[in-house]
Amino acid sequence: MRDRFRDLEEPATVRKKDVVLMATITSFEGMGHPSKSELRQFAELFTPVFQASSEEAKRQAVAALSQCPTVPQAVALFIGCQPISIAAPFLTGSQAIDDDTLITIARTQGAAHARAIVSRPSLSPKVIDALVGLHQAEPDRGMAMQDAAMNAPMVKVETNETDRLAREEALRMQIKQAARHLARDDRDRLGLRSLGEMQEALLVRFARERDALQFATTLADALSSSQWLAERIMLDTSGQQLAVTLVSLGMGIADAVYSLERFYPHLAESHGSVSRAWLVLDGIDAEESQSRVEAWRRADSYTYLPQDSIAPRPAAPLFGAKSVSIRELRVAGKR
User: Fold this and answer.
1) N or C: which end of the chain has fewer CB within 10 A?
2) Quick check: 202 and 222 in contact, CB under 8 A?
3) Which residues of the chain have pLDDT under 50?
4) 115 neighbors 123 (Cβ within 8 angstroms)
């Protein structure tokens, strides 16, 4: 491997520097799954070859590397810190850049690089929080901050602060739109157990009222399970089991976040620009959640007693005035 790179690195009269760069990229692409040693060797060779090449060759090399599934993070950081005319396709399209590298680039390279990062097809909550915190909505932020500090009249401070907050909010919405991949596609649920419109509306209503018993009853209906399974799901005070269940049923992300926050107050705490409930839901794989819930339902069907052997439960109006808390549910579950 090292010999292959050395052969490319040695100067030759028949090779132009641009050809050496592209040959280096082609050689790296041909590795498929490079080892740690090969990644380190490529990182050591790439920088000097890249710097010696023409602007056009640099753009071609960056465009090619943006399609590679694996790139050394040292190379990713180096490319991300190039002028935006060169770095843009890599920042917007490469899946090989990790979150820490993206955040470092956004913090050190200014507004143009941050906007390129915002336009990526996928952004993690960690990167979203960092971008929002950078106030990168300001044009050419690096220079604007210095100019404002030296030249802006003091009488404009309050107006500038208002404008900055407005731009930050606009950026927040833009980033959330760029992170649409974090929302689930509720339309593609062929063959999956799904909430009906009425069931989802009832769940939101009972969550608003913090009526845990009625919520559990509706949840059991949606799962075609026993009341006890729904109550056991809700008795998980971390909220994780209910989050898994709501994802498996295809509940809208906004309604699921709201329901979790109403029953589990600790999930309403803010974490950057989103709540902990949002982060919990975002971390759940839809297919895995469906498998887990189906396993719960199978276990419930094996242990659930026939209806005629269950002691009758007192009837209650569907929209009764009494609100049942999670604490009361826990007591009911122990009986």
Assistant:
1) C
2) no
3) 8-14, 136-156, 180-187, 189-190, 305, 307-312, 314-323, 331-335
4) no
| d(C-alpha 99, C-alpha 94), whole Å | 12
pLDDT for 260: 94
Task: Please report the pLDDT score of residue 241 as a whole number.
Answer: 94
Helices within 179-285 (DSSP H only): 197-208, 212-223, 227-234, 240-248, 253-263, 276-282
User: What distance in Å separates the CA atoms of residue 118 and residue 121, rounded to the nearest whole number?
Assistant: 8
Structure tokens at 69: 């599934």
Q: How far is it, in rounded angstroms, from Cα 264 to Cα 48?
A: 55
**pLDDT of amino acid 174:** 57
Distance CA 63, CA 267 (A): 41
Which of 130, 78, 62 shows the shortest CA–CA distance to 100? 130
Cross-strand partners of 274:
271
What is the reported pLDDT for 151? 46
